[in-house]
């Protein structure tokens, strides 16, 4: 199957990134081979910061929350299946992790008006409130918003800034 000059083989999967993995500088350290497919939409979800970070400094990390009548955006990657365990390890969703932070889930995303099967990660034990992201984590996310629509990027950055302002 062709996809924007991309030949999709059965040994690759679509990955929907919505946090620091949108930032290619951050992502390529974990997954050195990938294709950026483009902006994708996840229907009936929104981004929230529901868990304290273990590695980004004091602050929350991104999560997805089921929310009716909401559309969130993310970066859709095509990655080799043999590199998915690297990503699982990064996201704390690996069998090698003692306390898994995220779980891998299957989602359907919209790309170019087509519904595609992809996977993403969701926080397992969510707080009932949002935790402002650290400046470092926020900047990593902002560094990956160039693929997203400017309207969504502004909303996402505004949400992170609001959480930071409320926590200070």
UniProtKB/TrEMBL annotation:
Segment forming the signal sequence: none
InterPro entries: G-Glutamylcylcotransferase (IPR017939), GGCT-like (IPR013024), GGCT-like_sf (IPR036568)
SUPFAM superfamilies to which the protein is assigned, alphabetical: Gamma-glutamyl cyclotransferase-like (SSF110857)
Keywords carried by this UniProt record: Lyase
Top-level taxon: Bacteria
PANTHER family from the UniProt entry: GAMMA-GLUTAMYLCYCLOTRANSFERASE
Protein name listed in UniProt: Gamma-glutamylcyclotransferase family protein
């Amino acid at each position: 199957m062709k996809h924007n000059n991309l030949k999709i083989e059965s040994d690759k999967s679509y990955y929907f990134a919505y946090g620091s993995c949108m930032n290619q500088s951050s992502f390529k350290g974990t997954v050195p081979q990938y294709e950026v497919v483009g902006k994708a939409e996840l229907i009936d979800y929104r981004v929230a910061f529901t868990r304290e970070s273990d590695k980004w400094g004091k602050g929350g990390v991104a999560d997805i929350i089921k929310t009716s009548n909401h559309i969130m955006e993310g970066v859709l990657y095509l990655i080799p299946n043999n590199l998915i365990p690297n990503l699982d390890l990064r996201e704390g969703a690996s069998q090698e992790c003692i306390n898994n932070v995220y779980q891998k889930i299957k989602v359907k995303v919209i790309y170019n008006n087509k519904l595609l099967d992809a996977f993403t990660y969701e926080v397992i034990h969510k707080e009932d409130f949002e935790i402002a992201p650290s400046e470092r984590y926020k900047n990593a996310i902002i560094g990956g918003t160039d693929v997203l629509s400017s309207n969504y990027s502004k909303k996402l950055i505004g949400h992170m800034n609001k959480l930071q302002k409320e926590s200070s």
